[in-house]
Amino acid sequence: MPIELVVPEDVELTTLLDELRKLSWAAADVLRAYARGQEPPYGFPKSLTVEEGGDGPVSAADMAVNELLISGLKDNLIYREWDILSEETSKEKKYGIENFKKDWCWILDPLDGTKDFLQGSKNYAVHIALAYKQKPKIGVVLIPERNELWFGIIGSGAWYEKRDGKKYPISFSEREEISELVLVSSKNHQQKKLSNLLSSLCFAETKKIGSVGCKIASILRGESDVYISLSGKTSPKDWDMAAPSALIEAAGGVFSHADGRNLIYMNPTFSQSGCLIASHGKSHQQICKKAMEFFSLETDEYFV
Q1: In this structure, what DSSP letter does residue 107 have?
Q2: I want to staple 158 with a disulfide (CB 3.0 to 4.6 A). Which of 203, 250, 291, 298 is the partner?
Q3: Tens digit of each residue's pLDDT (9 = 90 or more) over 8-51
């Protein structure tokens, strides 16, 4: 049986991970400086301007980390045969789906949880994913305020590191019954249908956390067990889900649609619509089954 590629054949995985470490910790320095009103490193402007875009606020911090990551991936890696998709550049015409021609693609979210960041919450993250033919193979989630850098490599496992390089394993909880599970849910994105769905599932407890990356890290630490996204007026995008989905799947968990379908990336709108469920995997099928039963009773149209 052929071994699945997680990096291009001409790329050394160890070298790539070292570069991702450097870029991630540099991004942490930038974001922490902005969060504290300090002079950001690397010559980025100090003023933290905020503009409302189509999908929410964009700050100078988003743009600074976006520039840092893209320039780092382009300038510091010898391999050139990959595309780069970032939340902050996706609206530019040259980044339309028709321009993504290569098998390998970086999918970046320079600041996931921008509202949490602007509100002074510590639950924001940086997402970096490397996808091959529409499937994320490596997921990196940086949580600056916790000094945590999470790595997930499909087929090899997942772990997190502190800045000193010390590695720590994942620690899924032992909870299995749905009535025992702890849900991790959004603080800033709530809607009635999602509330009704969650009420029907009867989880034991709900924790409110911002960024998707922070939510998945909470599951990997064993603090919570399941995360559910349900599209409202807008849908999450590839950059919201790519790194977190690769991370939890590499750890042995599951991230799927409610009907069990895998998430597919790089569609024309970059959207991840419908009901998406991430969990430690022990009760995933039962959660999906109950969710689908809920939707079967809904009178208005719902797409999964």
Answers
A1: E
A2: 250
A3: 888 999 999 999 999 999 999 999 999 998 899 988 887 766 66
- pLDDT tens for residues 205-238? 999 998 999 999 999 999 999 999 998 667 899 9
| Cα(139)–Cα(137) distance, integer angstroms | 7
pLDDT (average), residues 132-142: 96
Is residue 103 within 8 Å of residue 132, measured between CB atoms? yes
What lies within 8 Å, CB to CB, of 2 at 6+ separation is none
In sequence order, what are the beta bridge partners of 132? 104, 135
Q: Which residues of 138-177 are buried (b: 16+ CB within 10 A; e: fewer)?
A: bbbbbbbbbebbbbbbbeeebbbbeeeeeeeebebbebee
Distance (Å, whole) CA 82 – CA 131:
9
- Domain annotation for the chain: domains and CATH numbers: 13-169 (3.30.540.10), 178-296 (3.40.190.80)
